[in-house]
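so im writing up the methods section and need the Putative F-box domain-containing protein record in one place, dumping it here so i stop losing it
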Amino acid sequence: MSLLETSTAPVAVDRISNLPDDILIHILSSFPTKQAFVTSILSKRWKHLWCYVPDVELEFVDDKAEEAKNSLFDKFVYSVLVSRSCG
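--- predicted struct ---
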């Protein structure tokens, strides 16, 4: 293909970002919390959408948790809750 020819490759259209926030939040609510959070890097518009997902699932699996591990988990939960304040 020469420089003067144009490509006929289809252009990807971002239709999901054109949806209203309420719809996007509903979609994000079907994701595990971690994946919903990861969507915050997609764009400025998506940055805080995950904060409005009504449920947060945090998992800590350690049957023999030591006090230090519990403290780390407490700090993690606190940081998630603070970041959900979206401010």
